[in-house]
Amino acid sequence: MIRRLQSTVSIAAAVLAVCAISSAQDPGPTRPLGVPTDYVVTPFGYFHPSCARHVAEGETVLADGRIRHADGTEETVAPVCDYPRYSASGSLISWDSTRAGTEPLTNGWVENISATTTGRYGKISATWTTPPQPTGHNGQTLFFFPGFEDIDDTVSILQPVLQWGPSAAGGGNNWAAASWNCCPGGTTDYSSLISVSAGDSMLGVISPTCSSGSCSTWNVKTEDKTTGHTTTLSKTPNEGQKWNWAFGAVMEVYGVTKCSDYPNNKGLTFTVSLYNNSLALISSPPWTKAPASGITPSCGFGLSSTATKERVEYNP
């Protein structure tokens, strides 16, 4: 999900630099050894804070990575991430080797349901109900989302994300939501985090800014339909990707040490509408389940799938 780091700073030098940094941030009892304490959690692993960028409502990320502000002014220089990234398990990830779902699964992508096409997908829309909160509070972070990616040339991924726990966007022992794009210019972009409550009805939509799935910019909207609050990445670039890999349901976790760290129910169901390049609804997408394997702790994981309902399961 990360393109090649455009910097004269070597990975080895960057590692030495970040390891020398001290921080008052609490790494939490389950942060992997080797991950610097000032690194923040994202749906894509651990990032240096300078490589996680807030994109406010009304702002857009230009094709070269600069931000155009709501008042029309533009940044003069695009950000460049000069730090390496760590997987959920704490291993150093080179900027050329990342792909969603390939990280070790002790912490990271636990289970997902996806579909692929030889062409392009043009839009995905999903609704779900926010689960009860976990009974265990150990500083864990949980992410649930649908998403778009390019299976042939993985550079970027778009996601409307439901979150429990802390991340680069903020949060704590509560449910929250934001829209994400990882990773233009090596940074991960996120919209403003909104607070949501258990039982709230949620909507996540990834849609093009033109009339087909061939657009160079996309909108990623996450909405709490119960409260009417919305958080959107507007006109976010696709980094030249074609979205031929759709995720109907993903569960990704960080710092889970016991099954009570999961929500206090049996799973989360996404009701998904997937559209082709011409923005016509696909009646029966070729959903494929990628079940959990070798996860510790093992918490009754499972997946179920129909044409429109994709469910990730767990047993707290």
Largest sheet: 9 strands, mixed
- Evaluate the radius of gyration: 18 Å
SSE run: HEEEEEEEEEEEEEEEEEEEEEE
Determine the mean pLDDT. Answer: 85
Strand content is 35-45%
Helix content class: under 10%
Helix tally equals 1
End-to-end Cα distance, whole Å, is 31 Å
Query: Could you name the ranges where pLDDT drops below 50 across 5 or more consecutive residues?
Result: 1-29, 95-106
Give the class from helix and strand content and strand pairing. mainly beta
Q: What best-fitting shape do the alpha-carbon axes yield?
A: globular
Number of strands: 22
Supply the key terms.
single chain; 316 residues; mainly beta; nine-stranded mixed beta sheet; seven-stranded antiparallel beta sheet; 1 helix
Description:
3% of the residues lie in helices and 39% in strands. The protein has 316 residues and is an all-beta fold. The protein has a domain at 11-109 and 128-247. Strands 3, 8, 10, 11, 12, 13, 14, 18 and 20 form a nine-stranded mixed β-sheet that branches.
